[in-house]
């Protein structure tokens, strides 16, 4: 089902890629891709940032494949090839940020665990890294390592207590 992915000569779809649509709990379709490896050392789940899509990561998938990893990836709801909540496809609106966490948990349950080889590692960028942090409690028994690149996260300011 690689026809779900955009074919660009300068950015070819990695060999063996399988793409599909996962039906989220609310009925929205979430596009995903699996990038198998003949003898994987495990699977890296790639979580893109805001306004990124699967196609942006083809080069990264190739680099990880050379290191012996299979990869799995999804487009967040409202982005890439996933369903939209608004009639304007250029707008990536969501109702609740927790919907991203639910989609990630369902992606693990429905797609990654049955179809991908462990151990599982997670590599996330920007908004994807924030979703990974929010989902960390659910992922603790599934994911061995997480690499979070530029998470959209701020630490609370130190309390200005009187002394």
From TrEMBL:
Superkingdom field: Bacteria
Enzyme Commission number(s) of this protein: 3.1.1.5
Gene3D superfamilies named among the record's database cross-references: alpha/beta hydrolase (3.40.50.1820)
Alphabetical list of InterPro entries matching this protein: AB_hydrolase_fold, Hydrolase_4, MAG_DAG_Lipase
Keywords annotated in UniProt: Hydrolase
A single GO molecular function term of this UniProt record: phosphatidylcholine lysophospholipase activity
Domain annotation Serine aminopeptidase S33: ranges: 39-152
Top-level class of the enzyme under EC nomenclature: hydrolase
Keyword Hydrolase part of the UniProt annotation: yes
Keyword Flavoprotein: no
Protein name as it appears in the record: Lysophospholipase L2
């Amino acid at each position: 089902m690689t026809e779900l992915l955009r074919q660009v000569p300068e950015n070819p779809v990695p060999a063996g890629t399988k793409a599909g649509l996962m039906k989220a709990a609310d009925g929205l379709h979430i596009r995903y891709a699996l990038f198998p490896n003949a003898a994987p050392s495990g699977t890296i789940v790639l979580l893109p940032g805001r306004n990124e899509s699967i196609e942006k990561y083809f080069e990264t998938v190739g680099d990880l494949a050379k290191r012996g990893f299979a990869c799995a990836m999804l487009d967040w709801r409202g982005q890439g090839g996933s369903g939209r909540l608004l009639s304007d496809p250029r707008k990536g609106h969501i109702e609740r940020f927790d919907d991203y966490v639910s989609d990630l948990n369902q992606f693990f349950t429905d797609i990654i665990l049955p179809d991908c080889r462990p151990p599982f590692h997670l590599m996330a960028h920007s908004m994807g890294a924030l979703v990974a942090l929010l989902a960390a409690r659910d992922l603790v028994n599934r994911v061995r390592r997480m690499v979070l690149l530029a998470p959209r996260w701020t630490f609370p300011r130190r309390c200005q207590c009187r002394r």
